[in-house]
Amino acid sequence: MGITVNWRLVVRDSTRMVAMLAAVLVSLSTAMAPEARSAEPAGRFEFTRMVAHWHQYNHADYLPFLREARPDVVQLGFYGGHFWSLAHTKAFGGYPAHFPVQGLDACGKWFAERNRLIHQMDAKVVGHFNVEFLVGDPRDSKGGKPPTGFFKFYEELWDENVLGPRPVKDPLDLLERGPDGKPISQKGYGIGGMREYWACLRNPGWQKVLKAWVRHGIQQGLDGFIANYFYRHNCLCTHCQSGFRTYLADRLSGKQLKELGITDLATHRFKEIVSWHDPAKSSPLRREMLRWSQVSNKQVFDEVFHKYGRSLKPDLISAQWNHLGDFGQISGDERCLLPGDVWGRDETYLWYSTGAAAFFTDLGKRFLGEATLQARYIRGAFDDKPFTLGKYENTRIRVAISELAANGGAPMGFYTRFTDPEARREIVRYYQFLGRHDALFRGNRSHAEDVLLFPRKAVHQGKV
């Protein structure tokens, strides 16, 4: 899976070593970075302790817990699709957001006040921002059923005094479209009995919606956003069709297009433009589709959060909630085919979920349920900037905290179980230890003499 190199034999300067390690891990070519980057780029935000909660953040013990644990970052609240789909519905108090009060205005004010109180503790507040996953049912003109969830918000509750004018009249024009031309939909979660849809990130109208939501979140006192549900499906809307054609025209020659089975790009009919897919069923064309999906997603992320968001708040914190698992590639990992020069570019920190890959042990099979390799890969690829792992670990809390801190990460991505007295005591004890030794942990850099190279170039060739 990788190659071990004795780095002392290659380069003895530790600062240059870190820069070159980052370049090796994310580069799409064999070229190395010719010059080391500064250890502390302008505007870099370092932190060592964070908490994240989707539930019970309105508990009476929540703020007292934060005062004890003293995290640098509190990942709290919802400001994207979850909020505008569900806060006004009867399903407001359930999964996923567990809103404390019902109503867009009432819930928005509650989050603004919570942000204010957390700022008094000298912590940064980062809001969860679902960028495309929408819950609700469109208006049924024939049957007479009114819209629900997101569609009710868009048609009836959108406040132009707060959000500006609606980008488009019909919310259906914002959605991903399948091969049949109909909006892609499912009823997987069954939240409030409503269906689920996905907006298309490449849709200019949807980008205006996202910018309106970003502006609103900043006005509520947020320090930044973490984007989740950062996906693209097999969308064949006009924006995806034209975007993928332009991408292929700019990237490939006529000969290369013919090798992919495309003789006339302008008239070629794409039966699919997939994103993640089964590596066993991959092909050069499908990997171009996946690569374009991830490149275009990153372009929208930069446009919405970096270009626009930082025009309003220059020090806006940005992050993505991604999924690595046990190094699942092509069928997983939102960055698996992303070019090295944009991998994590301008992002403040990373959240990578390990899913079901590391929250249990099987000692008989020598499986320890740890994520050291994932942590070291992310650290090297991300130039030692802060990151966390979402391990879904609610038992071995001390191990999860120690593992992340030892590998340059920021504990911990779920679950800081403050309502359990024993768990709370240990979380506070470990976080206070990190705080007392802040000079040792904050912004530290690797001095490793050996490096394990992850073969991203092979992944781009479909070899997983």
Describe this structure in words.
36% of the residues lie in helices and 12% in strands. It has helices spanning 14-26, 62-69, 81-86, 104-119, 149-157, 160-163, 204-219, 238-251, 254-259, 284-312, 372-381, 397-406, 421-436, 438-441, 456-460, and strands at residues 3-6, 50-53, 73-78, 124-130, 133-135, 185-186, 196-198, 224-228, 317-323, 349-353, 387-390, 450-453. The strands form three sheets. Strands 2-3-4-8-9-10-11 form a seven-stranded parallel beta sheet. α2 (62-69) links the parallel β2 and β3. α7 (204-219) runs parallel beside α10 (284-312) and α8 crosses α10 (284-312). The protein is globular and about 65 Å long. The model is unreliable at 3-42 (pLDDT under 50).
Query: How many distinct beta strands?
Result: 12
Q: Specify the structural class.
A: alpha/beta
Work out the strand percent. 5-15%
- CATH class categorisation: Alpha Beta
CATH superfamily: Glycosidases
What is the CATH fold-level name? TIM Barrel
> H/E element string?
EHEHEHHEEHHEEHEHHHEEHEHHHEH
Total count of helical runs of at least 4 residues: 15
What overall form do the CA principal axes indicate? globular
Radius of gyration: 23 Å
Mean pLDDT: 90
